[in-house]
Amino acid sequence: MAQVGDGAVIYQLGSDAVHTLSRFSTSEYINETSFLTSSNYLDDFYCSSINCEGITALAMMTDGLQMLALRILEKTAHAPFFRTMFQFAGNPKSTDVELAQFLSSDRVCERTDDDKTLLLAVRV
């Protein structure tokens, strides 16, 4: 995994443990980021790898969901959020419309006014 800027990559091992693969932003201010097209992007470049054996689910998200889905001070993922999202993604009856409705709901929008992109993948 390679990262420049904000957002996060989260993975689940087995059926329970949720971990953060990406680095937490070290910016002084919220919504301050580096872009791949910036001349100094290598200053904020982060690369990480893990053995994918045992990974049952993966999430990638933009910074708009960080305040909802991450525990910033502890530098960890908020496990209940991701467990729910991974269960949703693993349910064949779940739809992208339901996910869009959740992401645009008052309950989510009260906590963020930034972009809310969320990619979910689960092993079946």
Biggest β-sheet: count, sense, barrel?
4 strands, antiparallel
Sum up the overall morphology in one term.
Answer: globular
- What is the helix tally? 4
Q: Tell me how many strands there are.
A: 8
Number of domains: 1
Quickly give the structural class.
alpha+beta
Radius of gyration: 15 Å
Which residue ranges are poorly predicted, with pLDDT under 50 across at least 5 consecutive positions? Answer: none
- Order of strands across the widest beta sheet? 3-2-5-8
- For the record, give the distance between the C-alpha atoms at the N and C termini, rounded to a whole number: 22 Å
State which percent range the strand residues make up: 25-35%
Write down the secondary-structure element order: EEEEEHEEHHHE
Task: Please tell me the overall pLDDT.
Answer: 83
The helical percent reads 10-25%
Description:
- With about 120 residues, the protein is α+β, with helices and mostly antiparallel strands.
- The chain has one domain (about 1-120).
- It has 4 helices and 8 strands; from the N terminus they run E-E-E-E-E-H-E-E-H-H-H-E.
- The strands form 3 sheets. Strands 3-2-5-8 form a 4-stranded antiparallel beta sheet, covered by helices on one side. Strands 1-4 form a two-stranded antiparallel ribbon. A two-stranded antiparallel ribbon has the order 6-7.
- A hairpin with a 4-residue loop joins strand 6 and strand 7.
- The radius of gyration is 15 Å and the shape is globular.
- The mean pLDDT is about 85.
